[in-house]
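I am writing to request your help with a piece of structural work I have in hand. What I wish to show you is a protein chain and, alongside it, a tokenised description of its three-dimensional fold. Could you please explain, in whatever detail you think fit, how the structure tokens follow from the sequence? You will find the record immediately after this paragraph.
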Amino acid sequence: MFFGFDKRGDIVPNFLYGSEQKTINLLFLTQFNSCVENELKIPLKYAKNGDLKDIFTKMVKALLMPKELKFSKANKFCITSNLILFSLFNSTKPPILASKPSLKAAKLASMFLNDGLVFNANELFRNFIFNKISRIHQDKKVYIENGIIYISVQDKPVVGILPAFKTFDIDDKKSYEKEIKLALNLSKKTPRIYIALPRQKGLKKHITVQACELDSANSCVKIVPYSITNKVFIKKFMNNNI
């Protein structure tokens, strides 16, 4: 499953089919920003209008806008940056680059200049969760092993998080059977295993998995809705206060 855009338009995971464009934009940008260095982060206000490619193109243009004059040393001319930007705005064949661009606008443009910008949706979701948990649990060891996020105390994993960026249907057991089997197997190593899915219709609270493979006294497996954006941000976003 993929999330992003190419020359044909947006590529959206199936559980987002039918969602408003600004919702799709917001979910993508929030996760994208958690995976890139600070200079490439895009303000979430750009999620309000256009499709995903529009967002990135508008951000590049904004970075190129003249700023208030400052008496400082002039930057060196970067031919790589200029070639990238020329290709973007003139729809020409992307250049074969011999060096990395130095301009922020060109660095961002180079990410989607060739065939768009497409991520593995699960990896994008996992990195978002990992970065968020790492900030919250700075006193603990947080790491990824075989695609699973672990929280460890005294070198012993106490929580395992299995991210799955997919649709959840409680009446369709086959849709989450794979994750359940993996979680039950992981519970032998870690007492608490959470299968994290994006918060969505039909999944707004924790669901405890009952299985004979679990030692009910020491182990638990839960399907949990993971909010990619918080309520405080959503309120500001909808009220145009960003």
